[in-house]
Amino acid sequence: MNPLAAQMPALQVIVPMLMAPFVLLLPRGLSWAAAAAASLLAFGIAAQLTATVIDSGPVAYQMGSWPAPYGIELSVDALSALLLLVVTGASSLALVGGRASLAAAVGEDREHYFYAAWLLALAGLAGIAVSADAFNIFVFMEISSLASYVLVAGGPDRRALPAVFKYLIMGTVGATFYLIGIGLIYMMTGTLNLADMELRIAEVADKEPILAAAGFITVGLALKAAIFPLHVWLPNAYTYAPHIATAFLAACATKVSLYVLLRFDFFVFQQNLSGHAFQFAAYLMPLAILGILVGSGVAMFERNVKRLLAFSSVAQIGYIMLGASLVSIGGLTAATLHLFNHALAKGGLFLAIAALAPLAAGLRLKDMGGMARQAPWTFAAFVVAGLSLIGIPGTAGFVSKWYLVSAAMALGAPGIALIGVVVLGSLMAVVYVWRIVESACFGEPPENPARSAAVPRPLGAAIWTAALANVYFGIAPGLPLRLSSSAAATLLGHVPA
Amino acid sequence: MSAQQTILVAVALPLFGALGIALAARIGANFREAATLLTAAALAYCVWSLAPSLLEGARPAVSVAEVLPGIEIAFAVEPLGMLFAALASLLWIINSLYSVGYMRGNREPHQTRFYVMFAVSLAATIGIAFAANLFTLFLFYEALTFATYPLVAHKGDKSTVASARVYIGVLLTTSIGLFLPAIIWTYAAAGTTDFAAGGILEGKLHGPAVGLLLALFVLGIGKAAVMPVHRWLPAAMVAPTPVSALLHAVAVVKAGVFTVTKVIVYIFGIDYLFASPGTGWLVYAAAFTIIAASVVAFRQQNLKRLLAYSTVAQLSYVVMAAAILKPLAEIGAAIHIVAHAFGKITLFFAAGAIYTAAKKTELHELRGIGRRMPVTMAAFTIGALSMIGVPPTGGFVSKWYILAGAFEADNYVALFTIVASTALNAAYFLPIVYMAWFAPESGKPPPTHGEAPWPSVLALSLTAALTIAFFLFNGPVLELERQVVAAP
Asked: Does the ipTM surpass 0.90?
């Protein structure tokens, strides 16, 4: 057996993290290649880990061979494997395809700083996914957040600066809340290891501080995950970031926080706080429904294409939360599957936006005129990803919505209302996706013709990879479905019957 | 080639044809049109080669992929689907011939996109016809909506795009909002969405739920244009006439009523539906659509809009026939799909030929046009007679069966509706025919045009001949469709 195979969970973080300073030291011309190579390597490691998880169940890794509650533990189960695939896949596609677009946005002289920050963000996000330790999650969260502030602010658009300031303030508040929550738990239990925490909280007599911790952690993570109504930092950050960075962050940044939220709520709290399952569902379900309706509603009337898609993200996070708030196998499968499928769709859409942006300066709907003729292939891929976002059968988005509706149907009468929300949200998605399609197909081309019409080859390939993945996982959803149903079973295994 | 392979080839062929058309267009327009005709002929050959074994009782089926447990992409050929596919593929050949004359005669822009999307639409149509379950059917149903959108919005100006928005808006809203939930409900209740003889829902749903599910299906299948979800069809008339002729008189709208019939026969099962309470409303809804659409058609001044509303009414004939829930009426529903297709495509061809030759679109402009375009107007007359249901045209045969089914069920609402709408049809078609042949020509200077380009005239003569031929030689079709209801 490959001696490295056992070290995979650690390498998942170490590879991008160590490559980050190297990117600064290497000659300028090589910085992109080094970053892309590190990202692809991380993707390979994620794929390898996924295969191991599917074959032989969760992987646990003791840092420095110190045994679990004392040493630092990394663990990879189906849910983290799914997330790792999303994070490293999005990063790799965006980096491989995005060189030209990033060079234009960031500038040749600052490019290497940007790639270093990118790798740190990747390391942080991957680190969150593999950590089995609450404090390490916090550390990785800070690494990824600080790095992603740089990614958002890295572009030429000065409006990104106030956007990133808002992101920074809200993100710091969220992280601080999370830290306060962990502190309270540590005070009562003396442990930071999640699995250990679950066991020890049961022995705590006075549950009040734990309850407070649950509140802090849930709100803090909801802020980072942009769950409605704590989403206000998201639209501007996505809109003014460099397009490629938006594709990366939109595909995975909020999902990682959602992942931590699910982990904490299901692994640690559900078992130990009486009525937590009800609290979780009763608080999050209305917010999820509002998120779906308000996010889609705003997107329907939004004029800037990137912001339109950002508000659609707010709605899509609502779908994920709606599935999770059902606290059932079907609901959690739908939620984790949608986490994967939405990353495919939104990543593809933002990559296509990156390709179209040089043709449509300003990226308002009216700037999109004539896009379908100028870049027919890219736009066709955009439409495919858009159909997946709506949830048309034959695309990935349909599969997760099918599971969501089936799970809601299992509830009986109240489920009908939830189905109504999902259907309404999908119809609103038809409207906002179609507004883009219509203006691209039939709108007046802008007065000043495009500077350069050609879409760079690697970017075109990345876009079509994403679009075809949307179709492939819509027809053969075996892999993500297996991971997500296994993840749902694990999550639900921690809920008292 | 085994029957399974033939099915897959039939679905894939128009897609490859679309690619071929796009490539051939780079060489020249003649090659592009040749590629279209070649694809159409090959498709018809493929589809028709399945018919003989089907008559002998074979039911070839093939599964492509299992998407979710119990949900797969699969095809199965049965008599209804066979008839629909055979019809669409035959008329595609004639329609391609017609398109050549029409598109060139009117110097339409974007002709390559037109032919390519037309081929894609046909692929989706064949997929609908051969779908083995509701999921596969829905997949191709949505594909057909998207593939026809560029055809409807062909002209690309503001009012066309607005109409196309109505088109796709109504079709997508109904399909995602009602049809899809109905499919998921069916799946939740029956554990499958496969079409099976005798239905799959018997004993799985009770009481008012059956009527509600039926309503979700009928209104969700917006392509069947049962009021109040018919608005997309008149809106679609902004498309070039060949699109209105093949897609909005045959492929798209028939996909709708075909799906409704299939759901009634193979998902609910006619006996189960007949025995369930709260399902009788469908006859009334269809009857209302027939009468209301006929009245609206009566008031139209634009020829294509008149034909569109006439189509809305005729589609509800099929829905009503299926909703009578008696074997003879189901046969009537199936053959009305064919009879109406021949007649209506002829009428649209004639309308397009008049537009190409004379640039006339309004009814009052048609005075005396029969003397300038005798072949076109003769075909138009035959089509109109078929709409009314006069022998010797195809429309008579299907009306006969629908009436027989209505008698069998003692359904006087259906009987009255058929009689009343026949009168209405006569009232709005015969004046046009009279005016075209016998009224004096108007207009200064007097018009000098003759017939439309010969491919168009040939096409409409062929479909007019088919309208009459279907009256005389409908034996195999009837035999095939008897199997739909004779099966256990």
From this structure: no
Q: What is d(CA B130, CA B319) in angstroms, rounded to the nearest whole number?
A: 20
- Tell me the per-residue pLDDT of A162-214, one tens digit each, with 9 for 90 and over: 999 999 999 999 999 999 999 999 998 888 888 888 888 888 888 888 889 98
Closest-CA distance of chain B to residue A341, Å: 15
Report the number of distinct structural domains present in chain B: 1
Q: Which residues of A touch B161 (CB under 8 A)?
A: 438, 442
Domain-embedded: residue B388: yes
User: What pLDDT score does A154 carry?
Assistant: 85
Instruction: Indicate whether B87 belongs to any domain.
Output: no
Q: Please list every residue in chain B whose beta carbon sits closer than 8 Å to the beta carbon of residue A406.
A: 184, 187-188
- Reported in sequence order, the residue ranges of A10-143 that DSSP labels E, i.e. its strands, are 59-62, 73-76
Q: What is the mean pLDDT of residues A47-73?
A: 85
**CA–CA gap between residue B70 and residue A160 (Å, rounded):** 48
DSSP code at position B66: E
Q: For chain B, what's the residue count?
A: 488
B8 is written with which tokens? 């897959």
Q: Distance between CA atoms of A163 and A240, rounded to whole angstroms?
A: 7
Residue by residue, DSSP assigns A260-296 as HHHHIIIIIITTTSTTHHHHHHHHHHHHHHHHHHHHH
* Beta carbons of A442 and B185 less than 8 Å apart: no
Sequence-distant (≥ 6) Cβ neighbours of residue B299 within 8 angstroms: none
Alpha carbon distance A106, B190 (integer Å): 56
Q: Which amino acid is at A357?
A: A
**CB-CB neighbors (< 8 A) of B156 in chain A:** 441-442
Tokens of residue B424, six digits:
């209405």
**Residues of the domain holding B330:** 280-488
Judge if the upstream peptide bond of residue B445 is cis by omega within 30 degrees of 0. yes
Dihedral sign, CA of A181, A183, A189, A190? Answer: positive
User: With an 8 Å Cβ cutoff, are A409 and B185 in contact?
Assistant: yes
End-to-end CA gap in chain A: 41
Q: Which of B68, B157, B187, B216 to mutate to test the interface with A (most CBs of A within 10 A)?
A: B68
B192 within some domain: no
* Cβ-Cβ contacts under 8 Å, A430 against chain B: 169, 172-173, 176
